[in-house]
Structure formats: C-alpha cells, structure tokens
Amino acid sequence: MRSKIQTVLMAGTISLLTVSLITNPQACLEASARGLDMWWKVVFPSLLPFFIASELLIGLGVVNFIGVLLEPFMRPLFRVPGTGGFVWAMGMASGFPSGAKLSARLRQTKQMTQIEAERLVSFTNSSNPLFIFGAVSVGFFANAKLGILLATAHYISNLLVGLMMRFHGHKEEASRDNKQTASLRKAFSALHRKRLEDTRPIGKMIGDAISSSVQTLLMIGGFIILFSVLNKMLSIIKFTTLFNYGIEYILHTLHVSPSLSAPILAGIFEITLGNQLTSQTQAPLLHQAMIASFILAFSGLSVQAQVASILAETDIRFKPYFIARVVQSLIAPVLTLILWKPLYEKPSTHIGGAIPVVAQPAADTWYALYTYGPVMTLFCLYVYVLLLVRKI
C-alpha cells in the first residue's frame, strides 16, 4: 500500500510540474537559461581540472601514497583511511560535489569500506573558497570582508561534522582502529603496487579521466538546470507561499528578520539563488550572514541530488550525508553569530575599506571564469566528443 501511495505521489508531482512547464514556457526558458549560464560559465570550467587531476592521481597511485602518510592523522580523528585526507583537501579546493565523486571512486576501487565512505562523504563536500569569496561575499554582498566570516564558519562547522560522524557505524568497525605510523617506505610501496595493478598506458588513462569527468559534469549540469526550473515553477504556482509562512514564524521566534524567509526557501532548493536573494533583503547584515551560512552548509537540494546520483553507483547510503548536512546547517549559523565580533567587527581586520588579500584573488578568478569559462567548456566538450567517437 505504501509503495502505491509513493507511486501516485511521484506521478502526480511530475504531472503537475509538466503542466506548469507547458503553461509557463517563458518562465521555464528563463530558469533553464539561468541554470545553463551558471553551469557552462563557472561550474564546468572550475571543476573539470580537479576531476581529471583526481582521476589521474588515483590511477597513478599517488592517492595511495598520500593515504599511507595521512593514516595516523585521519584514522584517530575521523575514523577513515588516510586517503580521506586527499578527498578532504580536494573537496575544499574544488567544492561541490567533488568530495562525493572521490569518495565513491575510492569505494569502487575497494580502498575503504562502506561505513568509512559514508563517514568521509559527510564532511568532504563543502563550498570552495572561490564561491564563498568571489560569488557570495564580493558578487552578491559586495563585501569581501564578509567572506572571511562565512568561510571560517563554514569550514569549522564542516570539521565539527566530521568529528561527529566518526561515531557513525562505530560498532561495526571498532577493530579497524589500529595505531599506525607514517612511513615513506610504505608509502612508496603502496604507490608502486597500485601503479602495477593499473596496466593502462598513460594516454588511455588520460582519455578515461576526461571521459569520466565530463560525464559527471554533464549530469551535474542537468541537475542545476532541473532545480533552477523546479524552483521557478514552485514559485509561479504559489506552492512556496505556505512554507514561507512557516519559515517566517520560525524566524520571528528566533528574533531574525522575517524578510529572509523567501531566500531560505530558495536556498533549500538551490545554493546560488538562495545567497543572491539573501543579499537583496533589507535585513540586518548579521542576520543575512547567518542565513548565508545556513544555505552554504545545507548546500541545497540541487547539490544533494547530484551527490545522491553519484553515490547511487556504489553501496554508499545517502541518509548519513543528508543528516550531516542538516547538522552542519544548524551549527554554521551559530558559529557565524559567535564569530561576528572577532572576525567582522574587529577594527584590525578592516583598514581603510580595503579588500582582504584572501578575497581579492578569489574575486578576480570568479569574474575571469565568467569571461573565459564558456570557451573552455566548449573546447573540453569538443575533446570529449572526439574521444567518444574514437572509442565507438
């Protein structure tokens, strides 16, 4: 009976969405164009190099080398293999959903157990500094100093989630917590052993890395466009009005400006739109920063759908990741409130209205992506098509 109800609900929801698309073609086109613009100008060119480099590092055994060296650090703190340190670093540098892709890849190559992969994916998916400083703080808020506060709250809350998730499935793998020491000899042995196992020539390895990375990014682009349209349609059919009332009541109870209810709801679906709308409200800047932290931590259903799609190729369950996002979205705004005075209001952190040196490169890179990103995207898609045709 339950499965029948789920079938009816899903069929009804898709039918309603289809009808709204047919009756509002102009709004659908605008929302699709907005999602596509974000994907081919920013997401594709910014993530592709990281994806290709990660695939090559895994194939060449460098990740195994790093894993042996980081085992004494990652195992006691997060109860994941040392290779998780590589995933954590790459996830922070490249942003969503790199951590999920790399965690799934390591699970597919049997370099960690299911429970370890679930712990790892819960805290290795985060916004990258480029997005926090370039897009959110400079692009939306026109306030580079705010990026320091948002980034600090975001990464500290992410770290705290990782420490909490170490208890996930602890009974099943208590016997794996053995003390190990870092050894360059063992690390080089692991690197060489992995390289011997992978018999592909370097040219084939590069081609496979490009194909796999582009396929993942095409999937990500589809989700970005889909959720951009979905958010727009829900707004048109007034489906979001009821939820706005509920969010306004919660914000009023917490003494936060109720004008932030619409940005919160938009951010629950899509992280970029949510932060943009937050910056356009008349709420106090502290309240805006707390909501921006909430949206960055939750990451939006669009990103979560991308992660779910990537994890579906493995036995890694999505539920622990979702719980981790909810927990982080509760911690991050509190940290923003705590760090507001020492990081934002402290006079020494802001002299003469200058943009902090940390934010300036991120802002410049963000605008450069908007200018040259489409050219890189088209070139990489052209290379991908050539590789695909050659393979066929």
TrEMBL record:
Transmembrane segments: 47-70, 130-156, 217-237, 249-269, 289-310, 322-340, 367-389
Signal peptide positions (record): none
Keywords assigned by UniProt, alphabetized: Membrane, Transmembrane, Transmembrane helix
Domain Nucleoside transporter/FeoB GTPase Gate: 41-140
Domain of life: Bacteria
Pfam families: Gate (PF07670)
The protein's name: Sporulation integral membrane protein YlbJ
Name of encoding gene: ylbJ
